[in-house]
Amino acid sequence: MNWISDWALPKISGLFKRDVPENLWHKCPACEKMIFRRDLEASLHVCPHCSHHMRISAVRRLECTLDPGFSRIELPKAPADPLRFRDQRRYTDRLKEAQVKSAMDDAVAVAHGTIEGQRAVVAAFEFAFMGGSMGPGVGEAIVTAAKLAVLQDAPLIIFTASGGARMQEGAVSLMQMPRTVIATRLVKEAGLPFIVVMCDPTTGGVTASFAMLGDIHIAEPGAMIGFAGARVIEQTVREKLPEGFQRAEYLLEHGILDMVVNRRDMRATLARVIGLLRVPLIESAAAALPPPDMAVETPAEDETAPAKA
To answer: Residues 6 or more apart from 3 whose CB is under 8 A from it?
Structure first.
């Protein structure tokens, strides 16, 4: 019977064996509970058990923010390796690897469309592309998004998720900080809303430039937001930082943020904020009314006594 158990049974069972995808289940990094992949995608990668917000791609961010039918914007191509940088590997090789990993040319995707019927231009960072670091390509994307918002008379919304400036590009990368600040200034000068949604993480040169210049600052729950890391700050000031320092809830409590919004409610919240910011000023409606001191003519009463019959 050995040949049956050793050879025949495995062959027969192999005929009925089903292939199970490796990514069918996902483990939450916060509560460590297993989540069915389909349920995770339906909840926009928010854990149904502990509400931990996992990172999502820039393209997925656009899909769950804009109404169906939005259009991606083709972005100008920046110089790939202006400094011909090399450390342990060539910088160009790192770029190619990041492009394959993220399916993007650089760390930002831009699209225009509507949010519950209201026009908007949205830029979203891709953290999977070299940590969402900001180089000339990202700078070009933000400038393009700002100019498009002004051209279309639409609000500009930027979802940030970045480790800061891209060190492989040196001063060329740092120059994107003032460039993006000037670009977002164009939006404000046009009288258009500029909304920043800070996702985990938003740090470094992105935080020190345009990310803190929005008209409204929103963050996802638990997002880490700051310039330098907590460990670096503690080593510098030689003090223990408060619990939850640099987390979205801490910053909301101390007045840095306007609101912390669950990802599943983000689209409705953005639509409501845009609607409030784009309401015509009360003064424009009041301009049609006469001044309060203007005399209003009333028809004179006929004082003639009625004739007697």
So the answer is: none
CA angle 167, 102, 207 (to 5 degrees): 45
Residue 139 corresponds to which amino acid? G
Task: Tell me, yes or no, if the pTM score tops 0.90.
Answer: no
Sketch out the chain's domains with CATH numbers: 22-54 (no CATH), 55-279 (3.90.226.10)
Q: Annotation-wise, does 199 bind a ligand?
A: no
Beta strands in 50-130 (DSSP E): 71-72, 108-115, 118-125
Q: Which amino acid is it at 159? A: F
CA distance 214 to 159: 11
What average pLDDT is seen over the chain?
A: 88
64 is in an annotated binding site: no
Query: What percent of the chain has pLDDT above 90?
Result: 70
Residue for token pair 């930002």? 108
Q: 88-98 pLDDT, tens per residue? A: 889 899 999 99
Query: How many C-beta atoms surround the C-beta of residue 258 within 10 A?
Result: 16
140: tokens are: 């070009």
pLDDT digits 0-9 by tens, 217-254? 999 999 999 998 888 888 888 989 898 899 999 999 99
Give me the helices (H) in 176-304, please: 176-189, 204-207, 230-237, 248-253, 263-277, 282-286
Q: Which letter does DSSP use for residue 100 in this model?
A: H
226 contacts 204 by C-beta, under 8 angstroms? no
| Cα 245 to Cα 237: distance, rounded to the nearest angstrom | 14
47 assigned binding-site residue: yes
Beta strand 216-219 with 194-202 is parallel
